[in-house]
Amino acid sequence: MLVSDAEWAEIHRKVMAAGLLPGRSVRERLLALPSIDALIEVAKANGRTGMLDESMLDELLSFVPNTPVVARTIAPIAEPEPKPAPRIHDLEHYNLADFPMEAKDVDAEITVHFDITGKSVTEGKKEDIQSFFNDRLKQVKRLILDRNLPNHPIAINEAIRNKNQYSGRGNDFTIIGLVKESNSTKKGHLRFWLEDSTGEVACMLMQRDEDEPSQKIVHAGLMNDDVIGVTGTFNTSGDMIFADDIHFPSLSKHDKRTAGEDRAISAAFISDLHLGSKTFLAPQWEKMIQWFHKDPLAKTIRYLVISGDGVDGVGIYPGQDKHLDITDLFNQYSRLGEMLQELPDWVEVLLLPGNHDAVRPAEPQPAIDPELQTDYNNTLFVGNPCDFSLNGVRVLSYHGVSIMDFVSSLRTVTFETPEAAMRAMIDRRHLAPSWGGKTPLSPEPEDRLVIQEIPDIFVTGHVHGHHIENYKGVNLVHSSTWQDQTDYQRMLGFQPKPCILTVVNLHTHATAAIPFV
Predict the structure, then answer these.
(1) CB atoms within 10 A of CB 240
(2) Are residues 103 and 301 in contact, defined by beta-carbon separation less than 8 angstroms?
(3) What is the pLDDT, as a whole number, of residue 1?
(4) What is Dmax (Cα atoms) for the chain?
(5) Residue 53: CB partners within 8 Å, gap ≥ 6?
(6) Which of 388, 390, 427, 394 is nearest to 410 (CA)?
(7) Of 5, 254, 325, 333, whose CB is crowded by the most CB atoms within 10 A?
(8) Across-strand partners of 384?
C-alpha cells in the first residue's frame, strides 16, 4: 500500500467517525492538512455532519485557527474552444476546405459505362431465364476464384459422384453455385441447397461458439439465388455437405479513383422526390434551390444525381389518386422539369427511374421515355441501375427496390439500416440476387445487376432514409427523400429522414450532409 493510501485510510476513518462522508474531490486537500484533528473538532463544535464536499471544507477550514486554507487544485485556465451546435439526425459537420474548387471552373465529364436503355433483348422465355442465371453464376464464380480458395472448385455432380472420397475430416472440397431454400433449423444451424448447371446438393453451416466469419453468416442468413462458394465434407450418409466455410467474392480494400486536383469539384445526391404527392415537401425544395444559388459549398457542386422516383406516378398502388396533388402523369414530369431548371446553370442533373416512374417495373429499368423528357434542359436521363463516371470517379447509382428483399431475407438488415443492405450488395457483388421476391427482374441474356466493377461511390434510395459511410474503400450514400411521412410509413412506425442533400467531393472524397428541414 502506498503511503498516501495509508494516510488516506486513517483520515477517512476519523472523518467518518465524526459523522462526515468525504467525497473524492476533497481527498488531496485533506491529505495536505498538517492535522485532521482540528478540522474534526470544528465540525463537532458546529454540529456539521453529512457529505464533506468542497463547500463544507472551505467553511470548516475558515474556523480552524492558525491553519492555512488549502486551496483546491485548478487546471490552468485555457480559452475554451467553441463546440459547433449539434445537427439534425446527428449529421457530421464538414470542412469547407475539403471542397476546394467552384464547379463553374471545370467542364462536365460524364461517361456512362452501363445503362440498359435501348439494350434490353429478353423475350421472357425459359431459355432467357436459364441464360440469365448461367451468366450470373459465370460472372460471380470468376470473382470468387480471385480469392485464395483452399482448393480448386469442382462441379456439384462430381462431388456427389465421389462423395465417399470427400467424406470425413481432412477430405474437404469446394463447390460454387446458387443458393436455394435457405432457412435456419430449430437449433440455429443454417440449412440451404446449392445448385449449379450439373446438379444440386443440401448443405449445413453449423452454429458454433467460436468467433469466426462463418458464424456471422449463420446469424445473418443467406439470400435465395446468392452465388457463393462452399468448402466442406459430406456427412457419413452422403446426403449433405457440412460446410466449414462460405466464400463470397473478394473485396478486402478498394482504392478509390479521384478527380485531379484541377477538377476538385463535387457531386450531390438525392432520391425519391415523389413530386405530385400531397406529401412532397415543396418549401424545403425551395430552401435548397436558394441554398444552391448562395452557399459556398453549393458552388462546388457540378452534378446532381437523383436516384429514382422523381415523381409519385399514377396508378402505382390502389387508392393512390387520393394522395396526389398532381393527378396527371405528364403534368408531374413537366413540373419536375421546371423545378430542375431553377438550379444554377453550372449544375448537371442525372435522373434515374424508380418503381414510381413511368417505366417497366422489371430491373434493370430503361430511362424515362423521351416523350416525358421535353421540359428538361439540363438533365441526362439514364436507366436504373446506372454505372457511370464523373470526371474519372466511378459511380454506381441504383434506386434500391431490392433493399426490401434484403430486409426480408437477412436478419442483419432493417428498413432503418439500409446501409446494411448496401454492404451486403457490395459483399455479394450483386444488387438484387433473389428471383421471385419483391424486386421484379428482367431475365436478360447477361445479368447486368452483377457489380462487375467496384465503384468509388455507391448510391441508393427507395426506403427514405439517409446514410453516409466508407465501406472497404467505397463511399456508400443512401440518398434522402423529399417526401414527408406517408400513411403507410406511419402505420409501420417508420420515420423517414427527408430533405438531406449529400455532397461528395470528387478529388478529396470528403462528404457533407446538408439538411433543409
Answers:
(1) 17
(2) yes
(3) 45
(4) 103
(5) 23, 25, 26
(6) 427
(7) 333
(8) 365
Strands (E), 235-307: 241-247, 266-270, 301-307
Instruction: Tell me how far apart the alpha carbons of residues 13 and 22 are, in angstroms, rounded to a whole number.
Output: 10
CATH number of 148-247: 2.40.50.140
Give the per-residue pLDDT at 74. Answer: 52
**Is 327 strand, coil or helix?**
coil
Cis peptide before 364 (omega within 30 of 0): yes
Compute the distance between CA of residue 419 and CA of residue 99 in angstroms, rounded to an integer. Answer: 25
Q: Which three cell numbers stand for residue 319?
A: 387508392
192-199, long-range: CB within 8 Å, 24+ apart, which pairs?
192/222, 194/156, 194/228, 194/230, 194/241, 195/156, 196/137, 196/155, 196/156, 197/134, 197/137, 197/155, 198/155, 198/156, 198/157, 198/158, 199/155, 199/156, 199/157, 199/160
Closest CA to 400 of 410, 380, 420, 385: 385
| 222: enclosing H helix or E strand | none
Q: How many CB atoms lie within 10 A of CB 256?
A: 16
Q: Residue 294, Cβ neighbours under 10 Å: how many? A: 10
405/449 Cα distance (integer angstroms): 15
What is the structure's pLDDT at 80?
61
Contact yes or no for 270/289 (Cβ under 8 A) = no
- Cβ neighbors of 85 (< 8 A, separation 6 or more) are none
Instruction: Band the pLDDT of 212: cuts 50, 70, 90.
Output: confident
Q: Which residues lie closer than 8 Å to 23 by C-beta, 6 or more apart?
A: 51, 52, 53, 54
| H-helix or E-strand spanning residue 250 | none
Q: What is the pTM of this model?
A: 0.83
Distance CA 269, CA 394 (A): 14
Outline where 180-275 has alpha helix (H): 213-220
- Taking CA atoms, 483 is separated from 204, 314, 464, in Å, by 44, 16, 8
480: left (phi over 0), alpha (psi -120 to 50) or beta: beta
Query: What residues pair up with 241 in beta bridges, in sequence order?
Result: 203, 234
Cell numbers found for residue 184: 435456419
Q: pLDDT value at position 120?
A: 95
Which grid cell is 67? 491553519
How far is residue 153 from each of residues 141, 142, 293, 508, measured CA to CA in Å?
10, 11, 58, 41
CATH 3.60.21.50 assigned to 110-122+253-515: yes
Would you mind telling me the total number of residues written for the chain in this entry?
A: 517
pLDDT, tens digit (0-9, with 9 covering 90-100), for 268-293: 999 999 999 999 999 999 999 999 99
Query: What residues are paired with 306 via a beta bridge?
Result: 270, 351
